[in-house]
């Protein structure tokens, strides 16, 4: 029996994780949950899985959740960052699923690593913002970081049994999102409603916008650099609209190993939870006879310049990737609020990156300060330029 704590239990990854656990009650036990403000869903999760502790974003939400649960419920309620830290380091947990959205997931994930917990990592921002710090701490603590993103899970599986020095390149696949065939002029006029309609994946709002702008793939490039210890020159992106091949590894002998499956996040979640074993998963199996033709296209950096920004920030290193991430988070928020256009997001992010004085060897405090600076800078730019 593996005991699981989940950071972000009411989000898309958290809900899918609980579904995997629901179908394997003899293998997994939920011991701790952390969520944001969705107390209604969290209450349902607590009723079903009976964790020892649950955390929410603030004290009012904690009071609301406590009232909903009643005095007879045995789950202890916590709130705020201290509550998230407690869930992340919960003594009874064997593994922590890091699925909180955005930069808010960094500190709880570090707390889990510091506590010696294996981490099933869905929060890519952790590696984007502080990859060198996380990797170093994981090595010191003897902790496994198991990727949950479908692309990184695919690479992880394709690397199994092969030597690191035999890698020629990692090939991250991307669906291309809803605007794969849009021109640059078309992209200027797209709406949040259009951007939120992903053709293949069911995801949260922020990551869906990132997928539409290709920033999600940019962040995955940086995450792959740290997860798999490869140079940026050895990380490539190819568009694969069918989302059947989730990523590939090309070796020096010309062999290309690919991982395939239906576009269902329960598959990589189940693999991370079960590793090094494989257990049955509630997701449907892939039927290649029904899948049809598989297409591969070059990524268009002209229409989707966020890929270029990600490589540039990654190669600069240090706090530059935290600034990229923070600026993007705030730009996405502004786009969803109707304050800027879809294409303005990249322009704003690039402006913030150009202003940043990079700290090449930051502490975690410096990373957090860079993130906060970037977010404030985005707000200032939008207000000043009246975009």
List the helices and strands and how they pair.
Elements: E1 2-7, H1 12-22, E2 28-34, H2 39-49, E3 53-56, H3 59-69, E4 76-79, H4 80-88, E5 95-98, H5 106-114, E6 118-121, H6 124-141, E7 145-147, H7 150-159, E8 167-174, H8 184-188, H9 192-195, H10 205-213, H11 215-228, E9 235-239, E10 245-251, E11 256-260, H12 266-274, H13 288-291, E12 297-298, H14 306-316, H15 320-336, H16 344-355, H17 364-385
Parallel strand pairs: 1-2, 1-5, 2-3, 3-4, 5-6, 6-7, 8-9
Antiparallel strand pairs: 8-10, 9-12, 10-11
Notes on the protein architecture:
With 387 residues, this protein is an alpha/beta fold. Helix content is 48%, strand content 15%. Strands 4-3-2-1-5-6-7 form a 7-stranded parallel β-sheet, with helices on both faces. The N and C termini lie far apart (54 Å). The relative contact order is 0.11.
């Amino acid at each position: 029996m593996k005991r699981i704590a989940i950071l972000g239990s009411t989000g898309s990854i958290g809900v899918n994780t609980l579904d995997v656990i629901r179908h394997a009650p003899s293998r997994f036990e939920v011991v701790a949950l952390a969520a944001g403000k969705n107390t209604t869903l969290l209450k349902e999760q607590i009723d079903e899985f009976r964790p020892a502790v649950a955390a929410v974003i603030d004290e009012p939400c904690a009071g609301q959740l406590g009232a909903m649960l009643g005095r007879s419920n045995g789950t202890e309620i916590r709130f705020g960052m201290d509550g998230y830290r407690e869930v992340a380091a919960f003594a009874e947990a064997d593994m922590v699923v890091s699925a909180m959205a955005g930069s808010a997931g960094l500190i709880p994930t570090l707390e889990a690593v510091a506590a010696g917990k294996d981490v099933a990592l869905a929060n890519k921002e952790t590696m984007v913002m502080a990859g060198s710090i996380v990797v170093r701490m994981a090595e010191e603590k003897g902790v496994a970081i198991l990727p949950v993103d479908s692309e990184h899970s695919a690479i992880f599986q394709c690397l199994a049994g092969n030597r690191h020095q035999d890698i020629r390149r990692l090939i991250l696949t991307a669906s291309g999102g809803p605007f794969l065939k849009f021109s640059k002029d078309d992209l200027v006029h797209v709406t949040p409603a259009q951007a939120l309609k992903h053709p293949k994946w069911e995801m949260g709002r922020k990551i869906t916008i990132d997928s539409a702008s290709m920033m999600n793939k940019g962040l995955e490039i940086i995450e792959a650099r740290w997860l798999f210890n490869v140079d940026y020159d050895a990380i490539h992106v190819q568009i694969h609209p069918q989302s059947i091949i989730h990523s590939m590894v090309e070796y020096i002998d010309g062999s290309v190993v690919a991982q395939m499956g239906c576009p269902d996040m329960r598959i990589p979640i189940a693999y991370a939870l079960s590793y090094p074993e494989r257990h049955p998963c509630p997701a449907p199996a892939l039927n290649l006879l029904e899948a049809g033709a598989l297409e591969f296209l070059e990524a268009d950096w002209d229409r989707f310049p966020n890929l270029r920004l990600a490589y540039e920030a990654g190669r600069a290193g240090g706090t530059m990737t935290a600034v990229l991430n923070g600026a993007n988070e705030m730009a996405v928020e502004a786009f969803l609020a109707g304050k800027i256009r879809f294409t303005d997001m990249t322009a704003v992010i690039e402006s913030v990156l150009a202003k940043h004085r990079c700290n090449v060897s930051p502490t975690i405090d410096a990373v957090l300060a860079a993130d906060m600076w970037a977010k404030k800078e985005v707000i200032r730019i939008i207000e000043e330029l009246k975009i």
